[in-house]
Design a protein that fits this description.
By secondary structure, the protein is of the alpha+beta class. Helix content is 17%, strand content 36%. The strands form 10 sheets. The chain has an 8-stranded mixed sheet with strand order 31-32-34-33-35-36-38-40, sandwiched between helices. A hairpin with a 5-residue loop joins strand 8 and strand 9 (149-155).
Length: 682
């Protein structure tokens, strides 16, 4: 084990004023970039790598992790009139390949192979979308996981490139809508590489980008467009989502660039799914778990009162997470307490049947065939890897198409427990452990949490956590407030001035695991990324004695300046803005970077921390992790405090297989070491 201390970090006498407070920040210089920051990152990586690579269990885990990572993975199937599209990543691939076949019985043919984009696999296909007639395909290419895309359009099935469009920014399938002659798209990166200045344009194949007609400029950082066209190419609906609060809905006839208001100045979300002349609107109007309203498009679009629209599918026991049309039926994906359900309705909203799923798990990639009574989806659970299924709407049969050749190799017990948070709110949590493992109060345990932006944490196969579970570890996943597990009200309960509820829920989850004798404080680690990195960062500073180790990945930690970096200004609808005097008061109370207690002032001993961030992250700036690590290394007792900045990757997408293996080895060897896990081989 490397006994050398962390490299020293320059401290400057810098500060800034906010609402009458003078905020000392000796590490502001890390925000500036340049050679000095690059050198600092290199030295921190050398220190972190020396520590992580000296952990004995790392090389024992390596062959297991490489074997797990080099298993064939299957994406879900998308059906079109020309055939079926599917991503498959073979053991020898660093990136999944997009295949096409005319029927499910046909052999797959390569349509796009991202492994040919770069030698090291760091250039990848971040997304793809098929035209309604199945004769065109568009895909976005980004480098180093930066989520800033060049777009290629090709013909199906021969793969002939129709056109290549560079530098469209954060365009994705939600900001892309096909027409018979081209497509509408949302574009970012318009001024000084800003990702918050956006516009919607209309492009016809063969035209130069600068000739594309402007549909809408969007200056508000928190507003993002969702574009939808119908299959016949007549109708365009544009939903402008304003933060995580509401959306405005506009209409245009395809080919036009003038938007007609349909629903504006409302206080709810309206997300369209168009089928023929009807738009099914998913909305939380008088329905915190969401329901569907019907919007008639036969006469074009005009302004309507959403309260007067007919209801197609009423709110049910379960939050609506997605929907698709298959043949002449509507499939709706629900979650009930973070567990997936699939329900089938006719187009008038009458319930026909429930889809029989393999168990209590997660559904993803739901896709219906408009030309045949079939749909496709991926399903996984804590003990089943992501598996692709075909659903027959006529017979109700669910058939397995593709399953990775991987399993846990031992039986596990999966519980969904409920515990009481600080204010008495009951919070659910999944707890996974080896079936023969006794609750003796001393099992190494990893607690994962997120709690924000109405995102749900649902059951996921523990691919790399398998060795931890085999070795007597417990994995816990808490459904904290701020997430979407119980609809908009669960989200609202931990926004703005109520954000502390997320952290209280995470703290209470840790206390429950200790009180119920799953583990103890000196054998408990917490892990979270992005907003979840903020969650574990707050627990780290508020209750440092509660845990033994913290894995804090691509985190937000400097909450007094988060809105000045990258996409941060778009998240003020979630946290509030530090520029607002009222919001500033509640944010500074929990901002992890500003609530670290120096040892010379009687501060506590902090647990070991692995800060992991990414150089090409265009969502959460790596400076959050950099500044927090520098401050901890300088003034805090305990540790070690490691800061690993991964090169040639971003917030989490597009990583080649070799990089996934190294990152997982970092996290799990750190947890094994800090929790004193004795590795048990198969």
């Amino acid at each position: 084990m490397n006994s050398a201390g962390p490299p020293p970090t320059k401290r400057e006498n810098t500060s800034y004023e906010r609402h009458g407070d003078l905020v000392d920040d000796p590490y502001l210089w890390l925000e500036d970039g340049g050679e000095a920051v690059d050198d600092w990152v290199d030295r921190q990586n050398e220190y972190a790598d020396a520590f992580l690579e000296s952990i004995d269990v790392r090389e024992e885990l390596r062959p297991r992790f490489e074997s797990l990572a080099r298993t064939t993975d299957y994406g879900t199937v998308t059906a079109a009139p020309t055939g079926y599209f599917q991503e498959v990543e073979r053991p020898e691939d660093d990136q999944p390949i997009l295949y096409f076949r005319e029927s499910l019985e046909s052999d797959r043919a390569v349509l796009v192979d991202p492994n040919e984009f770069s030698d090291d696999g760091t250039k990848s296909m971040g997304w793809w979308t098929v035209s309604p007639d199945g004769e065109r395909l568009a895909y976005g290419v980004h480098e180093g996981g930066d989520e800033l895309y060049d777009v290629t359009v090709l013909e199906v099935p021969d793969g002939t490139v129709l056109e290549e469009l560079a530098d469209l920014g954060r365009v994705n399938p939600g900001m892309f809508a096909w027409t018979p002659e081209g497509f509408y798209y949302g574009r970012t990166g318009l001024e000084d590489e800003s990702q918050l200045e956006k516009e919607i344009r209309y492009h016809e194949h063969g035209d130069a980008l600068d000739a594309d007609e402007l549909v809408r400029e969007i200056d508000d950082p928190a507003t993002w467009p969702l574009l939808t066209t119908d299959r016949s190419g007549r109708h365009l609906l544009v939903a402008l989502a304003i933060g995580w609060e509401r959306s405005d809905l506009f209409y245009a006839a395809v080919g036009d660039t003038e938007l007609t208001p349909v629903i504006t100045d409302a206080d709810h979300f309206y997300t369209p799914l168009i089928h023929d002349e009807t738009a099914y609107l998913r909305t939380d109007l008088e329905a915190p778990f969401y329901r569907f309203l019907e919007l008639d498009l036969s006469d074009g679009g005009s302004e309507v009162d959403p309260a007067e629209l007919p209801e197609v599918v009423p709110e049910r026991d379960g939050i609506v997470k997605g929907a698709t049309v298959a043949d002449d039926r509507l499939l709706i994906q629900y979650e009930r307490a973070a567990v997936a359900d699939l329900e089938v309705f006719d187009l008038d909203g009458d319930h026909l049947r429930s889809v029989e799923l393999p168990g209590a798990g997660t559904v993803a990639g739901l896709s219906g065939n408009r030309d045949a009574p079939e749909a496709f989806f991926s399903y996984q659970s804590f003990d089943q890897p992501p598996t692709v299924f075909r659903y027959d709407l006529e017979t109700g049969d669910v058939a397995e198409l593709d399953r990775p050749d991987v399993s846990l190799g031992f039986d596990v017990t999966v519980e969904q427990v409920r515990y009481e948070s600080a204010d008495g709110t009951e919070v659910p949590m999944f707890v996974v452990r080896r079936a023969d493992l006794e609750r003796d109060g001393d099992s190494p345990t990893l607690l994962y949490g997120y709690g924000g932006f109405e995102n749900s944490l649902t059951p996921t196969f523990q691919t790399f956590g398998r060795e931890f579970l085999r070795s007597g570890g417990v994995y816990a996943q808490a459904n904290l407030r701020g997430g979407g597990e119980f609809g908009t009200e669960w989200h609202e309960a931990a926004r703005h001035e109520d954000k502390q509820n997320t952290f209280d829920d995470m703290i209470a989850a840790a206390e429950y695991l200790i009180e119920e004798r799953y583990t103890s404080s000196d054998r408990l680690a917490i892990r979270g990324g992005s907003n979840g990195g903020l969650t574990v960062g707050a627990v780290l500073t508020q209750r440092p004695e509660l845990v033994a180790a913290v894995c804090c990945q691509v985190p937000l930690l400097d909450m007094l300046r988060f809105h000045t970096f990258l996409l941060g200004a778009s998240w003020t609808s979630e946290y509030g803005s530090p520029d607002d005097p009222e919001a500033y008061e509640w944010i500074k109370e929990y901002s992890p970077y500003h609530n670290l207690e120096p040892s010379e002032e009687g501060g506590p001993e902090y647990p070991a921390v692995l800060f992991e961030t990414a150089e090409s992250d265009t969502r959460v700036h790596p400076v959050h992790a950099w500044k927090m690590a520098a401050r901890m290394q300088a003034v805090a007792d305990g540790g070690p405090f490691l800061c690993k900045t991964n090169r040639d990757t971003g917030h989490g997408t597009g990583k080649p297989t070799w990089m996934v293996v190294e990152e997982q080895l970092d996290v799990w060897s750190f947890c094994f070491e800090q929790l004193e896990v004795e590795y048990v081989e198969p």
